[in-house]
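Weekly puzzle thread! Below is a chain. First person to post its structure in token form gets bragging rights.
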Amino acid sequence: ASTDNKFEPYRPERSSEVRPDRNERPTFEERGPRLGDAAFRAQREAFEAANQALKKLNMHAHGEVLTNLLAAWEKRDPAQLPGAQELGKQVTPAVRSSWVQALASAPGKDATEALLRLEIAAELPTPAEHISARRMLQLQLLTKRNAPAPAETWGEDAAKVLGASFDAGNARRVQNALKALLKR
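Winning reply:
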């Protein structure tokens, strides 16, 4: 061991440690042959194509789940509501059961505020005819100190919307909001 560093005290225990050589690699047979440039590109392109196909399938399945959810709302049939597994990890069983209860009950009061809260939670634009109502709601949300944000209560807001009567215009807004929220 070298003692020419006057700022570092000599430690004999340090020199006794056996360090493996950094340049030591597994033998060629253990790690397999290296891929040529063309083979590497082909492998990477195949991997990317497979990932793209999986994303496409996932998007398709996601669209079907939303379509089934809206169909259940239109027919007020809780049996048509997709399962918790299909809805994804964002929808807890408690939220799904509140959706089932909302669909099972008779169509209730107007849910415009809940729909606006959904759009705020999803960070989506609101149609022009509802912008003033959204601004009013955002001002109300700013004045409520400890009230949960729309991003925290979107499951309950969706239940309120599902509890209201079906409207084709609102259905499109609900679909867009839930599409964004379920992906997170």
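Puzzle host: Confirmed. Bonus trivia for everyone else. The chain has one domain: 33-183.
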